[in-house]
Write a structure and sequence with these properties.
745 residues, alpha+beta, Alpha-Beta Plaits, six-stranded antiparallel β-sheet, 26 strands, 52% helix
């Protein structure tokens, strides 16, 4: 009997230590993907993480760790808190800073001796050897150990380039220091290149340090989100108040909040009243009043009052944890353009090694032994300047900053592909209910036939009648008067009239509430004032409810799903961005046209089923349009899944949010335009980064090889090559950080 193999696949993100360039990321990915049981591995070079999809029944995290260690890196598989990971990164940055400072201090006298006093002192070469050795052996040691581990697996990365260039120069210089007569006896000058070795390593270390600091800034959105949850919380268990770590809070615990406290969990208020600042969720600066029965979310801030709440979701289940996971996954995901970059980075280093080997051969073939020094310098320059760091950082740093910028503005992006696709959107399909409108019917107008002496009493009668009905329109009336504090009274008789309305008796008086047809059917007197008012309300897509006694109509109440205050401005912003806007709804044509007129939408489709919405998205795609679907309900899920870019309102259903590539924490259509704007800015930054990364290598490698020497006599100094390489990476990260200043409308 064959054993049953568990094919369950887990997807986990592990921090990675030791990566220095895009080729490192490529090596880790290829090694992990080749491991049996691993379905996918994606390295985020900028975020220093790898996302691995693997079968735990076939391969264990310990085996993944061992695989990565074989090529000179480390995988942190132990349970790491956010503070642990951040502390390790801080420690690594501190060590890098120490090495950079020491290398810089030692390289300065080597540079002065080598450039300005070369040959003045007989002991000068020995002094430079003594000063350079600690730089090579200690400060730059990881370049050589990393290159060795890569070479064992017939791989190469940035460490290989640095180790070969500085190692060859250092070995050549040591040989000429110890045995200068070898070249001098043959009529050649025994050159040494200690200053190049020392300054190159110092520059590369400085560039990496600046790069790591800048990459830390690119992940600032995650750090801000992580800092929103308090470390301890006051709870009451068994009538005893105690302060415990937030990790020890469980669903059902009674949490106590004082003024100024951050909310530690998602919960429901059971006592107290206060205002809670929810800008981290909604982006709105004004606090929201919270009373018994209201929901509060982790990371928000209690303002003035005291609250008691029952914990509903804790730890990784809270909305804040969901947001953090979504941002982390998006920052770690790869945009489609990155796949091409990864392929280029994978073959980049071997090509550079071949060019570096070819460079001295060409020099010696064309110039002979007299150009041995120039041949060596050119080879070193090619190895140093052709670092793939800038290429590897071009896309992920822009994605990290772009996703973080979106999160800070309540725009949660599920993956880099959604962020990249959004730039092409030229058609936005909007669901009506809950997207353009509030999704909650409410009483908007009350018109009385005449001044009623007992208006309050009549409103109480109307309220009591509607409280007996379960119709959505009746529920809107019920909630309206409940908020006003009115009390209901029991009717002595009640009857529901299907398709017409309701009737009831209070004491000896009978009352009706329903449509105009009911009024006329029962012979109730209708004044012209109320009839005209009802017609006008219906033109505005509102439902008119007549209220009457047995003799005459007393009032008309209007119920509608109010249009969101920001809907018209959001649709205008989309149009200004060159995007066509379509509205789909299951409502009747009259209601759809009335809503469309108020928000200035030209294209509408009414009386649509969920499958009809999906079919309409397909039709637009067949016309060559890139479609973004915006919805908030289960009925939108199919259309969301089919759209090129799917956008869910954060106050909608979990199904809509799970399907969507972008989730808006505020139900504000302005954010749809902002998401498209953010996408365009991010992709523009990626293109700029890639252009300069490619342009830099295309121009600099031939110059480093000595292409200009026959025409101008210019030969690139390896020290300048090291500085240029460091500057290229820092400039790419710096350009990505400019996304932080993008103003999202």
């Amino acid at each position: 009997m064959e054993a049953i193999i568990d094919t369950k696949v887990e997807k986990k993100t592990f921090p990675v230590e030791g990566m220095t360039c895009a080729s490192c990321a490529s090596s880790i990915e290829s090694m992990l993907r080749a491991k049996e049981g691993v379905q996918e591995a994606n390295v985020n070079f900028a975020g220093k993480t790898v996302q691995v999809a693997f079968s735990p029944a076939v391969v264990k995290p310990e085996q993944l760790k061992a695989t990565v260690q074989e090529i000179g890196f480390d995988l942190l598989i132990e349970q790491q808190t956010n503070e642990d990971v951040e502390q390790r990164q801080e420690d690594a940055l501190t060590r890098l800073k120490q090495k950079t400072v020491v290398a810089g201090i030692l390289a300065l006298p080597v540079f002065i001796l080598g450039m300005f006093f070369h040959g003045y002192f007989g002991w000068g070469n020995w002094a430079m050897l003594v000063l350079t050795t600690p730089i090579v052996v200690w400060a730059g040691r990881h370049f050589y150990t990393g290159a060795y581990k890569q070479a064992k697996h017939l791989r190469a990365n940035m460490d290989t380039l640095v180790a070969l260039s500085t190692g060859i120069a250092f070995a050549f210089s040591v040989f000429n220091t110890v045995y200068p007569s070898f070249f001098s006896s043959r009529g050649l000058v025994p050159h040494v290149y200690y200053e190049a070795v020392a300054v190159i390593i110092a520059f590369i270390l400085l560039g990496k340090y600046l790069e790591e600091r800048a990459k830390g800034r690119s992940a600032s959105a995650i750090k801000k989100l992580m800092g929103l949850q308090p470390k301890t919380v006051r709870i009451r268990r068994n009538e005893v108040e105690q302060e415990v770590p937030v990790e020890e809070v469980h669903a059902g615990d009674l949490v106590l909040l004082l003024p100024g406290d951050r909310v530690p969990v998602d919960g429901e208020v059971v006592a107290g009243s206060s205002y809670v600042e929810e800008s981290m969720l909604s982006g709105e600066p004004l606090p929201v009043q919270k009373q018994k029965g209201d929901s509060v979310f982790a990371g928000t801030i209690n303002q003035k009052g005291s609250l008691q709440l029952v914990a509903r979701k804790t730890g990784s289940e809270t909305m804040l944890a969901y947001i953090i996971r979504m941002v982390q996954d998006a920052q770690g995901s790869k945009a489609p353009v990155q796949k091409l970059v990864d392929k280029i980075a994978g073959i980049f280093v071997p090509v550079v090694l071949a060019l570096a080997l070819l460079t001295p051969i060409v020099w010696l073939l064309l110039g002979g032994q007299a150009y041995l020094s120039e041949a060596l310098v050119s080879m070193i320059s090619v190895l140093v300047i052709a670092c793939p760091c800038a290429l590897g950082l071009a896309t992920p740093t822009a994605i990290m900053v772009g996703v973080g910028r979106g999160a800070e503005n309540g725009i949660l992006i599920k993956d880099a592909e959604s962020l990249e696709r959004a730039q092409h959107v030229n058609a936005v399909v909007l669901d009506k209910t809950g997207t353009i409108t509030m999704g909650k019917p409410a009483v908007t107008d009350v018109i009385w036939a005449e001044e009623a002496a007992k208006r309050t009493q009549l409103e109480q009668v109307f309220y009591s009648m509607e409280a007996q009905s379960e119709h959505p329109v009746a529920q809107a009336v019920y909630m309206h008067y409940k908020e006003l504090g009115l009390q209901t009274q029991e009717p002595t008789w009640f009857n529901s009239l299907t398709g017409l309305g309701i009737e009831a008796r209070f004491g000896e008086t009978s009352y009706l509430a329903g449509n105009e047809k009911l009024m006329r059917q029962e012979g109730v007197g209708l004044s012209d004032k109320l009839v005209l008012a009802a017609r006008a309300l219906q033109q505005e897509a509102k439902t008119a409810i007549f209220f009457s006694d047995s003799q005459k109509a007393l009032a008309v109440f209007a119920v509608s799903d109010p249009i969101k205050a920001t809907a018209a401005a959001g649709i205008r912003a989309l149009k200004d961005a060159g995007v066509a806007v379509y509205m789909l709804t299951g409502d009747n044509r009259q209601t759809a046209e009335a809503v469309a007129k108020q928000v200035d939408i030209d294209h509408i489709q009414a009386e649509m089923l969920p499958t009809g919405k999906a079919d309409f998205v397909k039709q637009l795609q067949q016309q060559g349009k890139t479609v973004a679907m915006v919805g908030d309900g289960i009925n939108d899920a199919q259309a969301l899944a089919l759209a090129n870019v799917s956008v869910a309102m954060g106050q909608g259903t979990d199904i809509a949010m799970d399907v969507a590539g972008i989730t808006l924490m505020r139900s504000d259509l302005n954010q749809v335009a902002a998401a498209i704007q953010l996408s365009r800015a991010t992709v523009r930054t990626i293109r700029q980064n890639l252009f300069w990364a490619f342009f830099y290598n295309v121009i600099c490698i031939p110059v480093a090889a000595g292409l200009l020497f026959p025409f101008t006599g210019f030969l690139l100094n390896p020290m300048l090559a090291g500085a240029a390489m460091a500057l290229s990476s820092v400039s790419v990260v710096g350009n990505s950080l400019r996304l932080k200043s993008v103003k999202l409308k």
